[in-house]
Amino acid sequence: MNEPTGTACLVCSDQAVHNYHLIDGFQFVKCDGCGFVFTHPMPAQHELNDLYTGDSGITKTSYPKSSSRRRRALFQAFHLRKYLTGKKRGLTYLAER
Question: What pTM was computed for the model?
Fold first, then answer.
């Protein structure tokens, strides 16, 4: 699959992103700068509603590694906090939109 172009990281605004993983038709992209992983393109609201409220939604049995990944996400959140507290204010852009 082609690498995403014109896509900036939602956290640090870095343009250096690459395709990371394709799951159930959703393309995940990883930022080379901060390591944040996000979907590109962002799913439409109706797709998200169907995913989280439909019969095929995410359950504990369909995602058995959720507790260990939640723990890993917490540690990554501490790594990303510098973008919220320091000079690197990538999320400011999103708040102004």
Answer: 0.51
| Segment (H or E) for 30 | strand 26-31
Residues 6+ apart with CB under 8 A from 31: 9, 11, 12, 14, 16, 17, 37, 38
The answer to whether 83 touches 11, Cβ cutoff 8 Å, is: yes
Contact 75, 65 (CB under 8 A): no
What the block records as the tokens of 70 is 């939640």
- pLDDT of 47: 82
Q: In sequence order, what are the residues at sequence separation of 6 or more whose Cβ sits closer than 8 angstroms to the Cβ of residue 32?
A: 14, 16, 17, 18
